[in-house]
Each structure stands twice: as C-alpha cells, then as structure tokens.
Design goal:
alpha/beta; Rossmann fold; two-stranded antiparallel ribbon; about 40% helix; nucleotide-binding; CbbQ_C
C-alpha cells in the first residue's frame, strides 16, 4: 500500500497499538489498492485511526472494495461485511434466532450477525452499496454510527457497546437503478471520500500488479483503450461498468492467450446489453488492436 511516510506521530502510535491488539502485520500481499492521488490513502488511514466512519463514493470497479481491504490490512483488523440490497433486513445485519440440539435437548440460540460481531470484537464493518438498502432499514444503525457506538439488540434485548477499535467503512454507487439517496442524518455520520477511476501510469502499474499479462506494449494499449472508454462514459454513450478496472483486468488476462479484440469483446463489450454500446466499445478497441 503506497502511503505517505509523513503520518502524524500520534496516528502512527494508534496504528501500532491496533496491530498489537490483532497480532497482524502488513505484508506485501495486502498491498492491493493504488490511488490516483496518494493523499487519499493518507487521509483515509488518518480518518480510521481517529475512530471515524468512512463513506467511499465512486463508480463500479473504481476500487472501493480494494481500498477497504487495504485499510483493514494496514491496521491489521479483520473485516465483517454486509452486501446491501432491497431484501436487507435487521436479521441480516444483527443476527437471528435458531433452534439447536445440545445433548438431545432443544434450545433457542442467537446467531450474531456482522454488525454485532464487529462491534464486540472491535473489528471493521464494511457495508457495500449502502444506498441499495431500503431507507427504512438503515436507521437501526444510527446509534452504531454516531458517538454512542452502541445498539440495543431488538432480538435479545442486549445492549451492545462497540470496542474502541470498531469503525465502519461504507461504499455507494450513485445514480444506479435501485439505489436511493442517503438521508442527511446518515450521511452526517460519515467522512466522505471520492474514489475516481485511475488512469495513465497509475493504471499501468495496477494492471502490472493485478493482471497475468505482462507485455508492456499490450498493457499500454489497454491503458489507452481505458481512457477512450472513460471519455465515452463521460459523454453518456456508455454506462460506468464499461470502464471498470475489474473488466479491464479480465480483458488483459484473456489477451495473454487470445487476440486482444476477442478479449475486449468477451470481457468488456459482452457485459453490456445494448447493441450500440457494444459497438462503441469495439470501435474504440479497433483503434488500438485492429
């Protein structure tokens, strides 16, 4: 993880303390996320060290999940995840009751969900696509996200107080079908960071790191293709997923074994439903690979 070496001394002390608590040091395998602006890494590390919640805003495939994984690894903290949808309910977040058999006798046990587990253990909680959840579902987390850092479990009556190392990282994809704007009360409980797509030399270094393709010339052509696709996205001719880093890595991997045009057709154009959008991708690819 390429982070500034100029972190304040107090923040470095907090990071060391957490690593001692969770007994895990950062390894080379944890260095996933590369930012277009290195200040992003420094600022998100400081925000988490101060015990604040983070909201990551950016398009699909821009690296929001990668950033959260890298932050967790940097602090040495395990992560509990929630993937939001319209079906998300309190049980999926907090846990549920179930009947278990012990020594031939039945009893009701409570299986703790990701929110309760993360709070009790002082781990990080990652909430993916938080704006996909129904607005009436999320207020249950208000006390978890503010200064109280606690919740009364409606299923057990237990008052759960989070450990000091507990924090929340949430991610949103704005403007997608099925999403709803976060209400002000919820947004005010987060420090917000924009996660843009990466480009140029930064993207090239990510492709070298993430893809099995290592041909410098071919990778550079994919970087150029990515720039063209982002231009098409910005003009409204393509959806954001067409310029996803994830799909670009898929295309690079395939291009190690098949022609680049076929790789682009399967990994990028093939994921789109509109024929005009598919044609726009392939026309852009012809510029570099025909």
């Amino acid at each position: 993880m390429n982070i500034s070496s100029s972190l304040p001394k107090k923040i470095e002390e907090i990071i060391r303390e957490r690593k001692q608590i969770f007994q895990r040091e950062l390894s080379n395998d944890d260095q996933h996320f590369v930012a277009q602006n290195e200040n992003l890494l420094t600022d998100t590390v400081i925000t988490l060290a101060l015990g604040k919640n983070i909201l990551l805003k950016g398009p699909t495939g821009s690296g929001k999940t990668k950033l959260s994984e890298s932050l967790a690894a940097y602090f040495g903290q395990p992560v509990h995840s929630i993937n939001c949808s319209v079906d998300l309910d309190a049980e999926a977040m907090l846990g549920f009751k179930t009947i278990v058999e012990i020594d031939g006798k039945s009893r009701i046990d409570f299986v703790e969900g990701p929110v309760i587990q993360a709070m009790k253990k002082g781990h990080l909680l990652y909430i993916d696509e938080i704006n996909m959840a129904k607005p009436e579902t999320l207020p249950i987390l208000n006390g978890v996200l503010d200064y109280r850092r606690q919740i009364t479990n409606p299923f057990t009556g237990e008052v759960v107080k989070a450990k000091p190392t507990f924090s929340v990282i949430a991610a949103v994809n704005e403007g997608y079908a099925g999403t709803a704007p976060l209400n002000e009360a919820l947004k005010n409980r987060f420090v917000t960071f924009e996660i843009p797509y990466i480009s140029g030399d930064v993207l090239l270094s990510v492709l070298k790191q993430e893809s099995i393709l290592q041909d410098e010339r071919l990778l550079q052509q994919f970087v150029s293709l990515s720039a063209d696709l982002m231009t098409l996205v910005e003009s409204g001719r393509l959806p954001e997923e067409a310029s996803s880093i994830r799909t670009l890595v898929d295309a690079c991997d395939l291009a190690l074994y098949i022609p680049a045009m076929r790789a682009v057709e399967s990994a990028i154009a093939g994921k789109l439903d509109d024929d005009r959008e598919k044609a726009a991708v392939m026309n852009a690819a012809e510029t570099w690979f025909a």
